[in-house]
Write a structure and sequence with these properties.
Layout lengths: L1 H14 L18 E7 L5 E5 L6 E6 L9 E4 L7 H11 L5 E2 L5 E5 L9 E15 L2 E2 L2 E6 L16 H13 L13 E8 H19 L2 H13 L1
Parallel strand pairs: 5-8, 6-9
Antiparallel strand pairs: 1-4, 1-7, 2-3, 4-6, 7-8, 7-9, 7-10
Helix pairs in contact: 1-5, 2-4
C-alpha cells in the first residue's frame, strides 16, 4: 500500500506545479532559514499578487504613485495571519481590537544583486521585522536577507542592516497607499516598532500555527486522503 501511495504522490509532484501558498513548505530549517515566494521585485510598477484559489499571479493594480518596492517582496508559504499573530501584536504594541489580516505572512528579502523577476522562490534568512498595523489588522513585515548574498548574506540580525536601507523599506510601507492630495486624516497604516531576529522567528512560528489551525497539515492530509481512496 505504501509503495502505491508513495508512487502516486510522486506522480502528482511530477505532473503538477505546487500551489505557492499551500503546496510549498516553509523549508527544512524553518524558521531560521525559510523559503519565500516573491510576487514583486524592485523594477515592477505593477502590484502583482497571488490569486489564492489558483496559485497564479495576477495584476492587483498598477502602482498609483511614485513608490516602488525597494527589495524583493512576497510571502511565506503555509503561513496565515490570524488569532495568534494578532494576539502577539496586541501584547507587544499595547493596542487592543487588533485582528489578523487573513493573508500569508509578508516578507521582504534584501539582496545586493538586481533580481528583475517575480513568481520565484528564494531561500532567505529572517533577521527582523516591522510590527505593522493596517486599518486595525496585524500586517507584520518580516525582513530577511537572501541566502549566500555577497553583501547581506552573512548578516544575522536587523541591527546589522544599514539604517538607510531599513528607512527606505519603512517609508515604502508607510506611504505606498497614501494619497498625496490628502490631509493625512486618511492614514490607517502604522509601524509601532522594529524588532530583531528573535521576534521575527516568533511571528513566523505563530503564523505557521495559525495556518495549521485554519487549513491543517496539507501534506499529511493529502497523503491520508489518497491512502483512504486506495483502500
Amino acid at each position: 500500500m505504501m509503495t502505491k501511495l508513495n508512487k502516486l504522490i510522486q506522480l502528482f509532484e511530477q505532473k503538477f506545479v505546487a500551489h505557492p501558498w499551500h503546496g510549498v513548505t516553509l523549508g527544512e530549517n524553518a524558521p531560521n532559514e525559510v523559503k519565500a515566494y516573491i510576487e514583486i521585485n524592485p523594477t515592477d510598477q505593477i502590484k502583482y499578487e497571488i490569486d489564492k484559489p489558483s496559485g497564479h499571479i495576477f495584476i492587483d493594480r498598477p502602482q498609483k504613485y511614485s513608490n516602488i518596492v525597494p527589495a524583493l517582496y512576497g510571502f511565506l508559504p503555509q503561513t496565515y495571519c490570524d488569532t495568534l499573530v494578532a494576539d502577539y501584536c496586541m501584547e507587544k504594541s499595547g493596542k487592543t481590537g487588533i485582528v489578523g489580516d487573513a493573508d500569508p505572512l509578508d516578507i521582504i528579502v534584501i539582496s545586493e544583486r538586481n533580481i528583475d523577476r517575480g513568481d520565484i522562490l528564494v531561500n532567505c534568512i529572517p533577521v527582523g521585522g516591522f510590527r505593522m498595523i493596517d486599518g486595525g489588522e496585524a500586517d507584520d513585515k518580516i525582513i530577511a536577507v537572501l541566502k549566500d548574498d555577497q553583501a547581506y548574506g552573512k548578516m544575522k540580525n536587523i541591527d546589522e542592516i544599514p539604517s538607510l536601507v531599513l528607512d527606505r523599506i519603512k517609508h515604502f510601507f508607510l506611504t505606498y497607499k497614501s494619497n498625496p492630495n490628502a490631509d493625512g486624516s486618511d492614514k490607517k497604516v502604522e509601524i509601532t516598532d522594529t524588532y530583531g531576529k528573535e521576534e521575527a522567528l516568533k511571528v513566523i512560528n505563530l503564523s505557521h500555527q495559525d495556518y495549521l489551525n485554519k487549513y491543517g497539515n496539507v501534506n499529511t492530509d493529502f497523503a491520508d486522503t489518497l491512502k483512504a481512496l486506495l483502500g
